[in-house]
């Protein structure tokens, strides 16, 4: 038969009873926060490493190559005609230029894939020429000889008309030549991607037959 266990009314001298265990369910999102922090830290370190490596490569490239700026000069300009008629707004012009292009670099060659030379009178373009593409070797000079000749419809505003009258009186004409380039640099077997810089030549050109003389003019790279 079933016997009821006796109740312990007095002091108990047996082994100690372990305390009841409590179980806690881990809160949601705690692990994600830790993982996300580690991930962001890893990404930051990776980006920082890439930036340092790129900086070292650029510095070593500059240290080895020491690239120098290509120099453009207009060495000669001949203006045989620059007549503007108010009635039909036509400009008759004849302008020939010699432009020297100097590559001072010892290790860099340059591919001039496309050259567009625009002639402007006080921001009014009256002609464009396209010299032949060419490759320029190390420490060499090439010549461009664009000739702007013909007639074109060129409506001038009041300010431009006033400037033209001044130039007609002095025999010196303010003509700007802007060159739009597509070029690539060559270092050994490596070639850069196509770059599209601009070069501006601000000229003061005497009309042929006057006493004024043209002075060699340095061109500037547009930023």
Shape: elongated
**Strand/helix succession:** HEEEEEEEHEEEEE
Largest sheet: 7 strands, antiparallel
The percentage of residues in β strands lies in 35-45%
Care to count the β-strands?
Answer: 12
Nearest-integer average pLDDT: 86
Number of helices: 2
Share of residues in helices: 10-25%
Uncertain regions spanning at least 5 consecutive residues: none
Radius of gyration, in angstroms, nearest whole number: 39 Å
Structural class: alpha+beta
In whole angstroms, how far apart are the ends?
A: 107 Å
Report on this structure.
It contains two helices and twelve strands. Helices cover 22% and strands 42% of the residues. 17% of the residues are buried. The mean pLDDT is 86. Strand 3 and strand 4 form a beta hairpin. It is elongated, with a radius of gyration of 39 Å. Strands 3, 4, 5, 8, 9, 10 and 12 form a seven-stranded antiparallel β-sheet that branches.
Topology:
Layout: H1 30-65, E1 71-85, E2 90-103, E3 109-121, E4 124-129, E5 134-136, E6 140-144, E7 147-153, H2 158-170, E8 172-187, E9 190-191, E10 198-206, E11 217-218, E12 220-221
Antiparallel strand pairs: 1-2, 1-11, 2-6, 2-7, 3-4, 3-5, 3-8, 8-9, 8-10, 10-12
Quick tags:
transmembrane, 22% helix, 7-stranded antiparallel β-sheet, 12 strands, transmembrane helix, 42% strand, 223 residues, alpha+beta, elongated, NDR1-like, 5-stranded antiparallel β-sheet
